[in-house]
């Protein structure tokens, strides 16, 4: 499918765009990837690193409405809404609340599981081709609790996982501290999910997959995407600050920045950003052995290459508000509570001098990404809106997108992911 025909142009070189490019290459397409940054430098740089096919529980669960006042009033909570952003957020928030209907939640979880069950398997050929095995660890992850009430309030989410085939092991306090000797004694029990994996440097991992694609003939263009050219029925090119890139098809993988292209293609979408933060402790001696979610604190501690990364929090404040670094101070306090001995590592690294980061989860109100063709242009395929699970779902999304373009069955029901749900 190379030769004189225009290439397939992937918009965005985050983990979703890079995986789409890699799968398209495997289907024989000539591929160009455009991004204003180097691959893997936006949201895909700083996540918690989990390839977690069990992460199928939508953010909007039944009863979510009663939490909204707390999110508005408690600036130190794990989820906050900035008042100034509330008017712009309102349509998204109303749909978010509507998505918490129990029947809808069941359907969303089913759809996410169908997409992500094969996440590690869908990465496998890409990782092999890129010789990126050293980044991928298949050791499962833990959800650790400091209270019985927390454990009980997580039951509903665990039932949803179990209904969808996730195997969950209950872990006693003694077992937990055996597995995780640096964890504070205040952690009284845990659940272990063994099917999952993690990536020990998400940014470098994305770059290595991108380099592998380039070494097999893909072209990477560093440019600012301004829009698309069409002939009325098909997209024919991508307009950038560096000129027009001809295209036989486009894959829209611009993460949280996808809205303007969607509108240009004549579709509607409710996409906002759940901003999240991380801090890192380089050279930490005290550390998790596997990615560990502190349920009550709603933050992940992940063992990364040469450092521990603590990632989490949700801040609904849009793409343009300045960072609120008090969120990372909260993460630092929580990390010390979780692994008391890490305080020494933090002191060695320099108090208040830890690497810190703000990223923009591309979030739809129903926690489902948008995957599939635009309503008007069958050669424009959407692949964005992966919220909390973009690293997990990227390879599977890439495989599905390549199948759609090749006119083959994707193997899953794509209706729940269609752009048409926002009409
Ligand atoms: C704190 C935190 C923890 C997380 N933990 C996990 C986890 O453990 N597991 C998991 O699966 N997911 C996790 N996620 C979510 C995951 O990181 C995202 O879903 C994923 O990175 C989205 O990838 P993407 O490729 O869609 O977007 P991005 O990585 O944001 O890529 C979009 C690309 O588009 C480019 N772009 C945008 N506009 C333009 C333009 N006009 N011109 C040119 N280029 C443009 C950007 O430069 C960027 O490179 C986490 C997120 C956060 C914030």
Automatic annotation (TrEMBL):
Q: Where is the FAD dependent oxidoreductase domain?
A: 8-403
User: What domain of life is recorded for the organism?
Assistant: Bacteria
Record carries keyword Oxidoreductase: yes
- Is Oxidoreductase there in the keyword field? yes
Q: Keywords for this entry?
A: Oxidoreductase
By its UniProt entry, which PANTHER family does this protein fall under?
GLYCINE OXIDASE (PTHR13847:SF289), SARCOSINE DEHYDROGENASE-RELATED (PTHR13847)
By what name is this protein known?
Answer: Glycine/D-amino acid oxidase-like deaminating enzyme
Origin organism of this chain?
Answer: Caballeronia udeis
């Amino acid at each position: 499918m190379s030769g004189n025909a225009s290439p397939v142009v992937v918009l965005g070189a985050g983990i979703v765009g890079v995986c789409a490019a890699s799968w398209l290459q495997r289907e024989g397409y000539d591929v160009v990837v455009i991004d204003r940054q180097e691959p893997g430098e936006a949201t895909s740089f700083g996540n918690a690193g989990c390839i977690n096919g069990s992460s199928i529980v939508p953010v909007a669960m039944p009863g979510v409405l009663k939490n909204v006042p707390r999110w508005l009033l408690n600036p130190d909570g794990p989820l906050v809404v900035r008042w100034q952003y509330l008017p712009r957020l309102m349509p998204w928030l109303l749909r978010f609340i509507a998505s918490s209907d129990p029947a809808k939640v069941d359907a969303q979880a089913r759809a996410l599981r169908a997409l992500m069950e094969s996440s590690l398997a869908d990465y496998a050929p890409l990782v092999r081709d890129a010789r990126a095995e050293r980044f991928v660890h298949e050791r499962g992850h833990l959800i650790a609790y400091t209270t019985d009430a927390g454990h009980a309030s997580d039951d509903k989410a665990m039932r949803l996982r179990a209904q969808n085939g996730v195997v969950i092991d209950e872990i006693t306090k003694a077992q937990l501290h055996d597995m995780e000797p640096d964890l504070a004694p205040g952690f009284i029990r845990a659940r272990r999910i063994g099917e999952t994996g993690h990536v020990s440097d998400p940014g470098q991992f994305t770059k290595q997959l991108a380099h592998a694609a380039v070494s097999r003939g893909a072209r990477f263009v560093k440019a600012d995407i301004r829009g698309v050219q069409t002939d009325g029925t098909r997209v024919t090119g991508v307009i950038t600050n560096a000129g027009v890139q001809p295209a036989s098809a486009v894959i829209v993988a611009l993460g949280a920045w996808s809205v303007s292209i969607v509108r240009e293609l004549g579709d509607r979408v409710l996409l906002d950003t759940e901003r999240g933060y991380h801090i890192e402790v380089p050279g930490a001696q005290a550390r998790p052995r596997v990615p560990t979610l502190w349920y009550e604190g709603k933050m992940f501690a992940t063992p990364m290459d040469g450092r521990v990364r603590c990632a989490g929090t949700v801040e609904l404040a849009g793409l343009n508000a300045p960072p609120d670094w008090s969120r990372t101070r909260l993460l630092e306090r929580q990390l010390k509570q979780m692994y008391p001995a890490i305080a020494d590592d933090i002191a060695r690294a320099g108090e208040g001098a830890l690497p810190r980061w703000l990223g923009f989860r591309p979030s739809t109100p129903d926690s489902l990404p948008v995957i599939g063709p635009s309503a008007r242009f069958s050669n424009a395929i959407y692949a964005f809106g992966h919220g909390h699970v973009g690293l997990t779902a990227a390879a599977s999304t890439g495989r599905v997108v390549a199948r759609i373009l090749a006119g083959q069955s994707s193997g899953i029901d794509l209706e729940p992911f269609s752009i048409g749900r926002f009409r």
